Every structure is written in C-alpha cells, then in structure tokens.
Amino acid sequence: MKITVVSDWHGNFKRTKDIPTSDVICVCGDMIGRSYDMAIYPGWLENLPARLVLVIPGNHDVFLDEHWAPDSIKVFNPTKTPIEYKGVAFGGFCWSYTEDPILEEVWKFMTTNGAFLSEKLGCLPKCDVLLSHSPPVGCDMEIFNGLDIGVPKMLSWAKQNGCQLIVCGHVHEHSGKIFEADGVKVVNAACTIVTLDI
C-alpha cells in the first residue's frame, strides 16, 4: 500500500501538484494558514489524489475541533474511531506537548500537562498506523532550542499496542526525518511530502 504524508503547510496549497497518487493520504495538521483557508480546505481534501484521505487538526488549525472531518465519502478524521483500509487500521491523535503554558492559551491542541496526554493515549484505540500532529518524545526531533516537544509515552503506547508506524509533523526543524526504534517507525512530514510503502 502506498501512503503519502503531509503536514504543516500553513496555507501553501500550491504544493498540491507535487503530491503523488496514493492509496492513502495522511494529513497531519497545521495545513490552514489563515481563516479564509477554511473555505477551501474541505474541497482541497476531497480533490487529493487518493482513494482515502485521513485528516487530523494541528495546533494552528484553530477552526477545527478534535473530531472534525468534512461530509465526504473519502475524507475521514480517525481520532474518534480508527479507519480500516486494505486490512490496515489508521488511528489519530491531535494533541501536542508544549513547555510553554502561554501556548495553551493561544492554540488549540497544545498542553503542558503530561498526565492529560497519558490519559488521552490510554483511551486511544489500537491501530497499525497512527496520525499524530506531534512526534513522540524520544525520537531525536528536538526544536531549535533543544527542547523535545514530542508527546510523552507515545512510543511506549505504540509498542504495547502493536502500532508499527507513526506519521506526524509539528517539528519543522526535522522535516522529512524518519526514526525507528523497537519495531516502531516515526515519519515527520512537517512542511514537506513523504511517500512510503507499507
């Protein structure tokens, strides 16, 4: 199965022409740059070159709620219920960790509360592929000042639940990076397009 992952375009939809035709396109948040992008976003998702498009919001997608998805026969948000395609279950997790409490007040889906994130992960259904806006903690994807703003305990959740692939964005400094540990692969598609076979 061919999947393509995009994240953190912040309204730069002109890049769409570079997305290859795939079985599944995973959109991992922060695709909207301005409020008027929301008017074109559902149609943009619908026209992506794939049989299935999975979309979760990021911290900048302030106009979307956690389980938002357009009324569509091919576009879905897997945060509430995993979506199965060709025997592969796709789940979604949209919350991101921040070291700065002020950011919690500015953006949706940001928190300094590690216990809250652990609770959210504990409620997450099992899946083979997880869409997350933020990478897990411990994937060598620190931001410019050395902070690891990944989601605590996400890697251990993946190992315990048989999740083999986490696709994400959020950390622009590590755009396109692939990390592997203990049977779990993490792909950061922040600001770019990543295509892989699973």
Furnish the topology, listing elements before pairings.
Layout: E1 2-6, E2 22-27, H1 37-46, E3 50-55, E4 75-76, E5 83-85, E6 88-93, E7 96-97, H2 101-106, E8 110-111, H3 114-122, E9 129-132, H4 154-161, E10 165-168, E11 178-181, E12 184-188, E13 193-197
Parallel strand pairs: 1-2, 2-3, 3-4, 6-9, 7-8, 9-10, 10-12
Antiparallel strand pairs: 1-13, 5-6, 11-12
Low-confidence stretches: none
- CATH-assigned homologous superfamily: Metallo-dependent phosphatases
The CATH topology annotation reads as: Purple Acid Phosphatase, chain A, domain 2
- Helix content bin: 10-25%
Order of SSEs: EEHEEEEEHEHEHEEEE
Name the beta content range. 25-35%
As for the number of domains, it is 1
> What does the main sheet amount to?
6 strands, mixed
Q: End-to-end distance, in Å?
A: 5 Å
Count the E strands: 13
* Cα radius of gyration in angstroms: 15 Å
Structural class: alpha/beta
Quick recap:
With 198 residues, the protein is of the alpha/beta class. It has a single domain (2-197), classed as Metallo-dependent phosphatases (Purple Acid Phosphatase, chain A, domain 2).
What does it look like?
The chain is an alpha/beta fold. It has one domain (2-197): 4-Layer Sandwich (Purple Acid Phosphatase, chain A, domain 2). 17% of the residues lie in helices and 27% in strands. It contains 4 helices and 13 strands. The chain has helices spanning 37-46, 101-106, 114-122, 154-161; strands at residues 2-6, 22-27, 50-55, 75-76, 83-85, 88-93, 96-97, 110-111, 129-132, 165-168, 178-181, 184-188, 193-197. Strands 5-6-9-10-12-11 form a 6-stranded mixed β-sheet, with helices on one face. Strands 4-3-2-1-13 form a 5-stranded mixed β-sheet, with no helix packed on it. Strand 7 (96-97), helix 2 (101-106) and strand 8 form a beta-alpha-beta unit. The longest helix is centred in the N-terminal third of the chain and has 10 residues, at 37-46. It is globular, with a radius of gyration of 15 Å. It starts with a strand and ends with a strand. The mean pLDDT is 93.
